[in-house]
Amino acid sequence: MSVPHAKLPGWAEYGLIPLVNLAVAFLISGLVVLIVGESPLEAAYHMINGAFGRGEYIGFTLYYTTTFIFTGLAVAVAFHCGLFNIGGEGQAYIGGIGVALACLSFDHTLPWYLVFPIAILGAAFFGALWALIPGWLLARRGSHIVITTIMFNFIAASLMNYLLNKVFKPLGSMSLETRTFDAGGQLPKLDWLMSIFGLSVGTAPFNISFLLALLAAFGVWVLIWRTRLGYEMRTMGHSPAAARYAGIKEAKIIVITMMISGGLAGMMALNPIMGEQFRMQLDFVQGAGFVGIAVALMGRSHPAGIIPAALLFGMLYQGGAEISFEMPSISRDMIVIIQGLVILFAGALEHMFRPAITRLVLGLSPKTRNVAATKGA
Amino acid sequence: MSELAIELQGIDKSFGLVHANRNINLKVRKGTIHGIIGENGAGKSTLMSILYGFYQADHGDILVDGRKADIRDPNAAIAAGIGMVHQHFMLVENFTVLENIMLGAEESQILNAGITKARAELKRLEKEYALEVDPDAVIEELPVGIQQRVEILKALYRRADILILDEPTGVLTPAEADHLFRILEQLKAEGKTVLLITHKLREIMAITDEVSVMRRGEMVATRTTKETSVEELAELMVGRRVLLRVEKGEAKPADVKLSVKNLTVRDSRGVTMVDDVSFDIRAGEIVGIAGVAGNGQSELLEAISGIRRAKSGTVLLNGKPIDVTGHADPAELRKRGLAHVPEDRHHVGLVLKFEESENAILGYHDDPKYRKGMLLDIDAIRADAEEKIAAYDIRPPNPRLKTANFSGGNQQKIVLAREMERDPDVLVIGQPTRGVDVGAIEFIHRRIIEMRDQGKAVLLVSVELDEIRALSDRILVMFAGRVVGERTPDASEGELGLLMAGVEGRKEAAE
């Protein structure tokens, strides 16, 4: 007989457990700060204040959030199909080619609202292309997707190094980046959105691709739970044998899923390239592809979970930068430790506190007790 | 010394909201064979897992030999003299018999001394209980019946006085099962106590001294086997009167609907699993395939339904070929009128994490009636699921409930409803009632016969010989990938058993 899993009410499953995990991660982070000889409370203050204290800080937090929503969705889509796409980093990096090409070609001639759709298509196309190859290798040759996508991150890094050096860099320039785009290659900031709340975005690069990220999140929800393709993807993710039985074309679904996943990762490139720097620089992804894995894990691969998880990591990025600025003995590496702890507890050790919480929740609430009694009868 | 080998007092166990065992009291007398019977999900396995230390009871005491025992893990159970033979053997496939028996009881880092000792001890045990096994044979090369013997030896080697067997005959031929029962009798004669968990009433009647019946987590009755009957036990198990015999009229076979010719299937290692099999099935008849699990029935079903590629041979569906050696597409076969109830509903026939309504369209999900523009029409899908739930009395009647939360019988009804309601020409069914409770078995059997009477061609594969005999109009027996004989359903069990065991049996031989 199978062991029946205890079922928790939704608020505990999706609220309490993640909160407890987070709290433990922050508690241990506090200990680390203490060991370094600084005050954890002060660090916490700088973290929160740095992330949400002013309109400008919020703007930065949401800027990072935008990036993580894209990469988180990318991992989640693949995950629903049972594929662990570790290659978001490389796919986002290559996606940058599409954005750069669109901007470099049209920034003089077209307004941003016409360049933007072209750049979206370009980013998605190149990201999808980079994910297509590992997907195809899996579908055709059975190559393990984790291995191939990791390797493709390295290939992407080398390729971009080459392209920036030999193709994109303007003549005479010393730095590995494209030229700066004209107005057509610059996305407008979301000043109006911030001013609704009486805040000013200041210098923060909080731009319109945030809205695109939210739209993408909704699109992913529709795709996964409301389309035939999503149904087939989920069937494969839960049970490849059932998918075969149902006549679902495995190879086709793998390739399509990887392309959607890669496309979403690629769209991340819009945010830094068109939204902040107005040029494509070396290593503009800065690990966002990997953070996407943590975001997807924390958000349980559901768009409604991914958005808050991305916000959390946006806060860690922005608030963390602020800590290292305000408290010189805490270096940026410390922030990486804190992020690592969050990933560890919210992702890898997700179930550590589950048995205790289950006992507590089911033991305390008399209503669930009654349910237990009638169900067992 | 106590009269009782085991006494359970007020054992209670919940898994979250599921109350798996409720205030269980049980007395097992020493030197007896005690049966525990109940439907799937009645809590038998949970109870035995508590006794063997896999789970801890929430309340209640376990007394072994009259003393309270604290069984917190399997090691404690072994120390208390309890051994267990699991339904799925816990053997290391590429180790020898001797190595498996020693595993976990090596006694020192250097194996040599232990091996000598174990070999001597094994000899003694073999003699004492008539359990012949070659100690140097590698497990994966032994037939399942012998593997099971190794499991028993393993328990005896650890000085078990009380032996728990969980559904021991599921994988055995009738002859192997008989042999097992002789071994159990021998163990009893040597003063051991045997706890036999099963859902097969016949076994209980054949071998036990006493029998306890579980239903929905409770121990509802204990009877002396001699003083009870199959009918009474079935009623106790289900909680109502059950019809054990299926009633069916004469078959009226018409045109050939499914024709299999010289079909050969190999598995991924290249081993021939189905070897040159040919047969026809006509509209309005049920052809049953009998055989011990693992003799090619599964591969045969998979090849016909397009899931597994065949090496050679042809299959005609309604007179038109299925591309079994190439890219047969299960989705296309469904459209051509072939419905398939797979053997393994947990991994193949259903996605347990889906809600019921999502499983009710699995394989038929590209039907336009489930679509609205580019999206799935969730309302139509749920309405469709509700109709099937009503028609097949699936409980609880909630299309949004996660499939894993339905009982085995209701899960099977979800699959059957999906496959039968499409009015197929050919219905291919594997293990229709495996892990299904007695009440649902009756329903499923009636449905299968209804399908036949509506003029469908039914191919039935089951390891339950009783089921094959009760439902089939013709019986094919498979052994080692070949069809070794065809019989009518009134062939004796002994005759079929010999065929299943690979002995080219005749009636005389069976008597």
Automatic annotation (TrEMBL), chain A:
Family annotation (Pfam families): BPD_transp_2 (PF02653)
The keyword Transmembrane helix appears for this protein: yes
Alphabetized CDD domains for the sequence: TM_PBP1_transp_TpRbsC_like (cd06580)
Transmembrane segment boundaries: 16-36, 57-79, 112-133, 145-164, 196-224, 253-270, 334-353
Topology versus the membrane: Multi-pass membrane protein
Primary site of residence: membrane
Tagged with keyword Transmembrane helix: yes
Localization per record: Cell membrane
Keywords tagged on the record: Cell membrane, Membrane, Transmembrane, Transmembrane helix
InterPro entries attached to this UniProt entry: ABC_transp_permease (IPR001851)
PANTHER family according to UniProt: ABC TRANSPORTER, PERMEASE PROTEIN, GUANOSINE ABC TRANSPORTER PERMEASE PROTEIN NUPP
Protein name: ABC transporter permease
Organism: Shinella yambaruensis
TrEMBL record, chain B:
One GO MF term attached to the UniProt entry: ATP binding
ABC transporter domain mapped to chain residues: 6-241, 258-505
SUPFAM superfamilies named in the record: P-loop containing nucleoside triphosphate hydrolases
Entry's transmembrane regions: none
Family annotation (InterPro entries): AAA+_ATPase, ABC_carbohydrate_import_ATPase, ABC_transporter-like_ATP-bd, ABC_transporter-like_CS, P-loop_NTPase
Species of the source: Shinella yambaruensis
Keyword 4Fe-4S belongs to the record: no
Pfam families linked: ABC_tran
Signal sequence annotation: none
Keywords, comma-separated and alphabetical: ATP-binding, Nucleotide-binding
Similarity comment text for this entry: Belongs to the ABC transporter superfamily.
UniProt KW DNA-binding keyword: no
Record protein name field: Heme ABC transporter ATP-binding protein
